[in-house]
Design goal:
This protein has 99 residues and is an all-alpha fold. The protein folds into two domains: 8-61, Orthogonal Bundle (Arc Repressor Mutant, subunit A), CATH 1.10.10; 64-99. The protein is built from four helices and no strands. Helix 1 packs across helix 3 (40-52).
Length: 99
């Protein structure tokens, strides 16, 4: 990585339009890469992501695909329930010893 260079960030719309040039208009990856000054491997990666899940392919920075967000929420809820269960077990243990 070269010092002083910043990483470029592209919007979902830009990526989809770039992919559209290749998939819908028949332009070559090398041509689009050259015209937009984007590495061809980057464009190939975008195409792979898009083909694997066209609707949720580029959720954006800090955003998850809907199914990943659901999983994350359920994991948090499970952790909360486990913690509540541990607290109740400790409370029962404390109260049962004081009799």
């Amino acid at each position: 990585m070269n010092l002083g260079q910043t990483r470029r960030v592209y919007t979902k719309e830009f990526k989809e339009e770039t992919i559209g040039l290749i998939l819908n208009r028949g332009m070559s990856v090398s041509r689009v890469s050259k015209d937009l000054s984007i590495g061809s491997e980057t464009i190939y990666r975008w195409i792979r992501k898009y083909k694997s899940d066209p609707i949720n392919s580029f959720p954006g920075k800090g955003h998850l695909k809907p199914e990943d967000e659901t999983l994350r929420k359920l994991e948090r809820e499970l952790a909360d329930v486990k913690e509540e269960g541990d607290i109740l077990k400790k409370a029962i243990s404390i109260f049962s010893k004081t009799k």
